[in-house]
Amino acid sequence: MIRPILLALQNLASRSFLWIILQAIAFSLVCVSLLAWLGSSFLDDIPQYEWQWVTTLLTYIAGTGIFIGALLMVFPIAALFIGLFLEKIADIVEEQDYPEHPEARGLSMSESLIVALKFLGAIIGLNLLLLPFYFIPVLNVVLALVVNGYLCL
After folding, report:
1. Euclidean distance between CA atoms 47 and 115, whole angstroms
2. Which H or E element spans position 141?
3. What is the pLDDT of residues 85-94, one digit of tens each?
4. Burial of 34 (0-12, 13-18, 19+ CB in 10 A)
């Protein structure tokens, strides 16, 4: 049990793994930024009220909601991109850590996409189930890290 964990930690420091992780993070940041930008484009549609402070308050509330929504989507979007790179990760692990084993059958791009979308669905579903607990301070951070970290193992 300890050997695979140590091998995984060693692999995280390798260039090939770091490149995949950096690509997934970059794609995730682009998607989350686009999601936030798309959400902020709706801020102009907030109705204008007679009292300016009401309009300003609604704009701040909507902006905060868009920001929090974009943050909540970081894990699922990152998981989607990691799922797309899963075949490359498996190839690297097999080559570096298990050269004595026979080569496994690889997944096609469509199979990888299906696996990634199923995984994305599981992450979104579980996070929606835990959404009420995300409004409890301290527990929200712990739950988000534990649940999403476990799913991404």
Report:
1. 42
2. helix 139-151
3. 877 887 888 8
4. exposed
